[in-house]
Design brief:
The chain contains 1 helix and 34 strands. With about 400 residues, the chain is mostly beta strands. A 4-stranded antiparallel sheet has the order 1-27-26-25, with no helix packed on it. Strands 5-6-7-8 form a 4-stranded antiparallel sheet, with no helix packed on it.
């Protein structure tokens, strides 16, 4: 019986490994997609060559309700539930996309590569030659800001209402603490081009760049630390669902995940060799990645793998020993709760309903970090353990 269980678990492991990111069908399989933004699990927009596309049904179908011939659109972002904003290569276009239509309007800052809204009206846009422009009327008018650099600025993200960082070529990092009015230089310590940035909270932020570079800040962008990834791929997109759990995407179809704030990274199965340019999560379970040749991937993993240490249910579920070598013993105050074990990249390797005490044979598990999820109808607790 034990051998049969191990075979079943191995099959489950393989199936989950193949299905962590599910390919979606884009309106065009030839257009490169540079940015994706997920409002929730059903409403998602992506943009790239020839204009934006959108799904309102969680990826079942995608539509393109406007086409811009030969024009790259570089980023989509919003703070408004029915108005999404897209910046374009062409200096005549700034797009506002509602749920049923797309409006084109002039007045956008030219040569823009990235934009980020700090609220529903105010936005900062950055681009080529160190360009920074700001608007507080949802893009109707723009004011030029001095960046102090001629390097291309490739991405920007607000950590709070007043603070933001923009990143660019040759390791450039620019920081504002007055909502974009003035900008100061921050030393990155590297010369690689920096392509993406995300702050999961006001103090912790991450940057992704060429040569497999990931940088981390814990002081709202004042200083940054290099976090080795073990790869040399160009990293084009980064997103963290909390301060410790996040994803990077890049060239060669690379997707990697960390559970420990970038200390270690695990490669996920993407199913593509196309360059992936952007990743975004609306929630820990609603994630999307897009890339070249119309590549759209939907995350199909488990979203509760951030370690939960504050839940009221924390005392309802415990296990020992930790670290463990051959066996873990799980105690539960609820004998109808479900228990699932996940490896470091989110693949489920064990599942069953709990008794008050169960013993789980982990002798055949590979050494490393694992997560135990305990779930009832209204409570979820996740705890980390180490298999020696």
């Amino acid at each position: 019986m034990k051998k049969f269980l191990l075979i079943v678990l191995s099959l489950t492991y393989i199936q989950n490994a193949k299905a962590q990111w599910i390919p979606q069908t884009a309106p065009s399989a030839t257009n490169n997609l540079f940015s994706v933004f997920a409002l929730n699990g059903t409403q998602v927009a992506a943009t790239g060559f020839t204009g934006p596309i959108r799904t309102l049904n969680g990826g079942v179908s995608w539509t393109q309700n406007i086409t811009l011939g030969g024009v790259n659109t570089f980023e989509v972002h919003t703070k408004h539930p029915t108005k999404w904003y897209i910046m374009c290569q062409n200096s005549n276009w700034f797009m506002k996309m509602g749920l049923s239509s797309t409006t084109l309007q002039g007045g956008k800052p030219d040569s823009i590569l990235s934009l980020n809204f700090k609220d529903q009206a105010c936005v900062i846009a950055v681009g080529t030659g160190g360009k920074i422009e700001a608007s507080c009327d949802t893009g109707a008018t723009w004011q030029v800001r001095s960046s102090g650099t001629i390097q291309n600025l490739n991405a920007i993200w607000f950590s709070d209402a007043d603070s933001a960082c923009a990143v660019g070529n040759s390791g450039t990092i620019k920081r504002t603490k007055d909502a974009g009015l003035t900008w100061t230089n921050v030393v990155s310590g590297i010369s690689n081009n920096l392509n993406a940035i995300h702050f999961p909270n006001p103090t912790v932020g991450y940057i992704a760049g060429q040569g497999g570079r990931v940088l981390k800040t814990t002081d709202a962008g004042a200083t940054w630390t290099n976090m080795p990834t073990g790869v040399l791929n160009g990293l084009n997109g980064i997103y963290f669902v909390d301060q410790d759990s996040g994803y990077v995407v890049g060239t060669g179809g690379l997707i990697m995940k960390t559970f420990n704030g970038g200390v270690s990274w695990n490669t996920m199965t993407s199913g593509t060799s196309q360059a992936l340019n952007s990743v975004h999560f609306a929630s820990p379970v609603d994630g999307w990645a897009v890339g070249n040749a119309g590549t759209i991937l939907k995350y199909n993993g488990n979203g509760t793998l951030g370690v939960n240490s504050a839940s009221n249910a924390i005392t309802d579920f415990n296990f020992y020993p930790n670290p463990a070598k051959d066996l873990i013993i799980i105690n539960s105050t609820v004998n109808t709760a479900s228990i699932k074990l996940f490896n470091a990249i989110g693949e489920m390797v064990y599942e069953r309903l709990t008794d008050n005490e169960i013993k789980v044979d982990i002798s055949n598990f590979a050494p490393g970090i694992y997560f135990a999820e305990w779930r009832t109808g209204d409570k979820v607790v996740v705890k980390k353990f180490v298999k020696e």
